[in-house]
Task: inverse folding
């Protein structure tokens, strides 16, 4: 007797649940939107600044590794009340020492010749984009490697823990 | 200066050489309309019912409401502005509650703005009241401007009121950031108001756990949405006086936690819908038959 009522109740409840489920869960949407907006509130980092940081990190890291720049992710995350900047870099291959040195020389030459143009940040962005496509052209695709590196980034506040998750 | 309401007690205290050192708790939220004043009135009343000496300070100058919630609007003679401008003594401005002599209100001025009282003046008032009361509850105005700064000035603890809504949580996060920057605030706790278990169950509302995780703050209370709040406000009688009310119980539990008791959180997950009640009723009957 008791079971009949329970079944009846569950069926009715199930019916209403089904109709509700078609739309995206309002609670999860709220949580996700809030997380994003609070990260911005807490850090005072504007999307433009974040983009600039991303670009500078790419520039720095591409000296040492070849990576899939479009798949690079830079996000804030929260762990035990501590803000963390999560950087996920899909690495294609690590560069060799000779390559790195060669690139260093190249950038030194570049900075000598183009130093006058680099004053405006907008121009700088343009310049780095050109550089990025250069390295992509060089691409000698070897097997994808999985390296995990934890490192404190100097580009950030000490209070913000940075985790570089290099895939 | 003694401002104890009961002269006999104060004399006794003088003889023993004891002075009370009350706890100053500011109740704040950032966003308006989340239930700061209701929380203040109810926690204050609950603490007084538990035998503590409580004074509530309404710092929402120009928009006072705490007097209404306590049903004391007709008894106010002097306000906090009269105290700081020297028109009366502090103890003259304290309005005693109708039912509970342990409970007092220092009302805000309705005709003045936030600049009428300074941070220093509020700090002094709190220091003075600490000598004679166990708890000084400061009702903070909405916003993060001078009114907030004033209210927080004399406090060493804070209760941040929020609801499981995005805008309220965002504003609570901002307030928590400001409180963390204040050296005087030794601890702050989160109170989640207007929780609707049915909406949480159907995943339409953020749960208490979600809010706590997002804000990463300690919880001091979960108050369910209760239509009784509206009637109690209309009557000018805090809902903690109604022992049957769920919100009243929840507020009573908050007061007990403030005193230091270890009280479990109310189980709001229990289905209170009509269908659940019908089901419970029938299963009860069947249980008896067996």
Result:
């Amino acid at each position: 007797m008791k079971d009949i009522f329970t079944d009846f109740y569950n069926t009715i409840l199930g019916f209403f649940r089904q109709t509700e489920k078609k739309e995206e869960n309002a609670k999860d949407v709220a949580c996700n939107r809030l997380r994003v907006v609070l990260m911005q509130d807490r850090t005072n980092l504007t999307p433009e600044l974040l983009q600039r940081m991303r670009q500078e990190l790419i520039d720095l890291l591409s000296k040492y590794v070849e990576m899939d720049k479009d798949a690079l992710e830079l996000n804030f995350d929260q762990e035990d009340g501590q803000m963390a900047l999560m950087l996920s870099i899909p690495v294609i291959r690590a560069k060799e020492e000779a390559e790195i040195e060669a690139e260093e020389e190249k950038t030194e030459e570049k900075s000598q010749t183009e130093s006058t143009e680099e004053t405006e940040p907008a121009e700088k962005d343009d310049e780095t984009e050109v550089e990025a496509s250069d390295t992509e052209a060089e691409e000698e695709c070897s097997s994808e490697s999985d390296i995990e590196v934890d490192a404190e980034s100097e580009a950030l506040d000490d209070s913000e823990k940075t985790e570089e998750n290099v895939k | 200066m003694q401002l104890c309401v009961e002269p006999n007690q104060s004399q006794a205290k003088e003889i023993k050489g004891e002075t009370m050192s009350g706890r100053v708790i500011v109740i704040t939220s950032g966003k308006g309309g989340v239930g700061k004043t209701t929380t203040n009135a109810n926690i204050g009343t609950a603490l007084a019912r538990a035998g503590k000496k409580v004074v509530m300070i309404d710092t929402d100058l120009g928009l006072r409401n705490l007097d209404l919630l306590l049903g004391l609007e007709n008894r106010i003679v002097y306000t906090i502005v009269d105290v700081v401008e020297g028109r009366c003594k502090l103890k003259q401005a304290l309005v005693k509650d109708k039912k509970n002599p342990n409970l007092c209100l220092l009302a805000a001025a309705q005709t003045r703005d936030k600049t009428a009282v300074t941070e220093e003046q509020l700090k002094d008032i709190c220091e003075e009241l600490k000598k004679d009361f166990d708890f000084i509850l400061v009702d903070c105005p909405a916003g993060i401007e001078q009114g907030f700064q004033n209210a927080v000035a004399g406090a060493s603890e804070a209760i941040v009121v929020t609801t499981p809504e995005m805008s309220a949580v965002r504003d609570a996060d901002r307030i928590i950031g400001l409180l963390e920057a204040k050296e005087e605030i030794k601890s702050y706790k989160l109170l989640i108001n207007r929780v609707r278990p049915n909406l949480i169950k159907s995943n339409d509302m953020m749960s208490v756990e979600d809010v706590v995780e997002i804000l990463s703050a300690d919880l001091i209370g979960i108050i369910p949405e209760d239509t009784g709040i509206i009637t109690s406000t209309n009557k000018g009688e805090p809902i903690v006086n109604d022992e049957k009310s769920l919100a009243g119980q929840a507020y009573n539990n908050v007061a007990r936690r403030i005193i230091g008791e270890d009280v479990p959180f109310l189980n709001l997950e229990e289905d209170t819908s009509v269908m659940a009640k019908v089901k419970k009723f029938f299963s009860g009957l069947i249980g008896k038959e067996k």
